[in-house]
Amino acid sequence: MEQIISRDMIRTKGAAAFDKGLGHDEHGMNPGSPAIDEWQAGWRARRDEVAQAKYDKLTRQQAEVVVAEVVEP
Fold first, then answer.
1. Which has the closest alpha carbon to 49: 7, 12, 10?
2. Other residues' Cβ atoms within 10 Å of the Cβ of residue 2
3. Burial of 15 (0-12, 13-18, 19+ CB in 10 A)
4. Does the pTM exceed 0.90?
5. Residue 18: exposed, middle, or buried by beta-carbon count in 10 A (0-12, 13-18, 19+)?
6. Angle between helix 7-19 and 35-71 (nearest 10)
7. What gap in Å lies between CA 27 and CA 73, rounded to an integer?
8. Is residue 26 over pLDDT 80?
9. Complete DSSP assignment for 8-43
10. How many Cα atoms within 13 Å fall on the side-chain side of residue 38?
11. Residues sharing a CB contact under 8 Å with residue 38, sequence separation 6 or more, in sequence order
12. Is the pLDDT of residue 67 over 90?
């Protein structure tokens, strides 16, 4: 009997692969597998989350410096 894996589970596997440093096409699935799209969607979503977190950290630090300069005489 075949095991059914949800789309969310496949996306989670793609996100975990990104965290491990695997590339976008390193899914190890058979070419043409319908699950590849979901896996890659999870991989891209994690990549975007990481990029956004880095951007937020950089811009937040800059904003705090600007606020401190304005508030302090």
1. 12
2. 4
3. buried
4. no
5. buried
6. 60
7. 56
8. yes
9. HHHHHHHHHHHHTT--TT---PPTT-THHHHHHHHH
10. 13
11. 7, 10, 11, 14
12. no
